[in-house]
């Protein structure tokens, strides 16, 4: 019997952490941290606060640059949010970082009561959104958008890449009121530079045109949507890609205008549970406006997800580029 086995390369534990860049893809290191430092040089009211996760949210770059404006609150997320609210009342603009699960699930009441009810100028930037870690339900924030969408006055941002993340830092600092932003950290892909892109709070951006399919996407799924569109074009399937970086408030007019074009399959794509995220927000919008469209969604199932290597999990739960292409072809 031969001892030679043919198999895929073995995935190591590094494949479980929040790296979303493909091999050889252009990346930019710590776009959030560097953008915040650049902005803080002109904005003395900006402070950085975290719950023992500066290194893992790229806030350590800010801490090194402005040690007197950095506050390490320890593993106490409720205290972190309460203190951020107090800082905002004193005229500061706190940029608060932790993991998305801890911000939304553990500290929700403090965000709701201390920050949002008083419309305070706190910017919550939360790492490991959706399925960007393989460490199981304790760290997978698959429901964070649903949780935060229910808070009145909360602006919600889900950036696609390093460019989106960096530009959003300045935009949310200028925006008055609380913001929840999904944070892409580490070596983050750069994909939107090809589209003369400029982030604006509350605005969707049409990146690609196509007659057969419209993908309405947010976050890292816009990167996957662009990859899927390129693959489908080889089969003469035209795919439009509408990037929606602001989940709340939605750019309703742009979404309705694009979804109203006749004869196109409309697919929403999100790195989030199918419950309570972009897909349901778009579906409710189109129903209210009387838009009749073939509508389907690419998103995570309504269940607790497994631990494992991210590439395997993304295939299993349908948010990889290959699975998106397969779904679109099956619908067409």
From TrEMBL:
SMART domains (UniProt xref): Transket_pyr (SM00861)
Stored CDD domains: TPP_PYR_DXS_TK_like
Protein's UniProt name: Transketolase
Family assignment from sequence similarity: Belongs to the transketolase family.
Keyword Hydrolase annotated: no
Keywords, comma-separated and alphabetical: Thiamine pyrophosphate
Cofactor(s) required, per the database record: thiamine diphosphate
InterPro entries: PDH/Transketolase, THDP-binding, Transketo_C/PFOR_II, Transketolase-like_Pyr-bd, Transketolase_C
């Amino acid at each position: 019997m031969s001892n030679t086995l043919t198999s895929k390369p073995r995935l190591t534990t590094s494949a479980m952490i929040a790296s979303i860049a493909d091999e050889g893809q252009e990346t930019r290191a710590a776009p959030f941290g560097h953008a915040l430092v650049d902005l803080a040089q002109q904005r003395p009211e900006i402070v950085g606060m975290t719950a023992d996760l500066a290194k893992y949210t790229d806030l350590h770059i800010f801490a090194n640059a402005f040690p007197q404006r950095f506050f390490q609150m320890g593993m106490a997320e409720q205290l972190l949010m309460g203190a951020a609210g107090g800082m905002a009342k004193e005229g500061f603009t706190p940029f608060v970082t932790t993991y998305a699960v801890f911000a939304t699930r553990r500290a929700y009441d403090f965000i709701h009561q201390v920050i949002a009810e008083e419309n305070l100028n706190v910017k919550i930037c939360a790492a490991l959104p959706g399925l960007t870690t393989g460490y199981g339900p304790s760290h997978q924030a698959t429901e964070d958008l649903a949780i935060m969408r229910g808070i009145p006055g909360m602006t919600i941002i889900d950036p696609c890449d390093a460019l989106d993340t960096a530009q959003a830092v300045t935009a949310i600092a200028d925006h008055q009121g609380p913001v929840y932003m999904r944070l892409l950290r580490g070596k983050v892909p750069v994909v939107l530079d090809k589209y003369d892109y400029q982030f604006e709070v509350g605005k969707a951006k049409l990146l690609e045109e196509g007659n057969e399919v419209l993908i309405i996407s947010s976050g890292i799924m816009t990167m996957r949507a662009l990859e899927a569109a390129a693959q489908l074009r080889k089969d003469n399937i035209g795919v439009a890609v509408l990037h929606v970086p602001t989940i709340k408030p939605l750019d309703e007019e742009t979404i309705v205008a694009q979804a109203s074009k006749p004869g196109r399959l409309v697919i929403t794509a999100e790195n989030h549970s199918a419950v309570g995220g972009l897909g349901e927000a778009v579906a409710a919008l189109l129903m209210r406006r009387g838009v009749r469209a073939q509508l389907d969604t690419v998103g995570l199932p309504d269940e607790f997800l497994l631990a494992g290597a991210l590439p395997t999990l993304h295939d299993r739960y349908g948010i990889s580029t290959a699975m998106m292409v397969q779904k679109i072809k099956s619908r067409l």
